[in-house]
Amino acid sequence: DAGVTQSPTHLIKTRGQQVTLRCSPISGHKSVSWYQQVLGQGPQFIFQYYEKEERGRGNFPDRFSARQFPNYSSELNVNALLLGDSALYLCASSYLDSSGGAKDTQYFGPGTRLTVL
Amino acid sequence: GEDVEQSLFLSVREGDSSVINCTYTDSSSTYLYWYKQEPGAGLQLLTYIFSNMDMKQDQRLTVLLNKKDKHLSLRIADTQTGDSAIYFCAESLRDTGRRALTFGSGTRLQVQP
To answer: Residue A60: which residues within 8 A CB-CB, separation 6 or more?
Structure first.
């Protein structure tokens, strides 16, 4: 079975531009979460989506937005890019069964490396 | 509050055991995870433990949880050069259906041949 896939793998943008990152979850998983990992740090939570609805949001500005499609894939959009947005953006999928348990475990994709010049 | 802390670096010789430590502060955590990240790659799930458990063993990996001290450790037996990577401890908060993970800064494990 395919794991979590993300596109593109690398991206170079300039300050002020906008970017869209894409993620396809593991087949059967209904939840997608996005994380930002700055070099030398652990990932920071940005968003979680479940059944096309936002379930949680981390401490990120409104320049960051996301959505989830009926096939459970997701897009992360970042507007008005800043140099500090340069990072590895990770997507994770999980089943998010409401009863909890191991099915909520998050599996990560390979990430999209965004460089803002 | 949410805060996960790890030591930054660990160096061991091939064949020895490695022990990577983590402390967390949020007492409402229900799941604690260990992930491995190799250079330029995403995060690979290694193992997890429920907060009502004390220990979990999975082949070469042993996870110990001390709930009183909020201390989590990952022991890798017979460490190999392929185990060289950054290891992240993460806690999952269970509130209103959200499963956001809070990560530590990672421990870089260097395995010397």
So the answer is: A36, A46
| Widest CA span in chain A | 45
- Helices (runs of H) and strands (runs of E) counted in chain A: 0, 11
As given in the structure block, the two tokens for residue B28 are 């409402």
From the number of C-beta atoms within 10 Å of its C-beta (0-12, 13-18, 19+), residue B62 rates as middle
Q: Assess contact for A54 and A62: CB atoms under 8 A.
A: no
Pick among B52, B99, B102, B107 to test the A interface (most A CBs inside 10 A): B99
A42-94 pLDDT per residue, tens: 999 999 998 889 988 999 999 999 999 999 999 999 999 999 999 999 999 99
Contact B88, B106 (CB under 8 A): yes
**Cα–Cα nearest to A107, from B108, B5, B7, B90:** B90
**A113 min Cα distance to partner chain B (Å):** 9
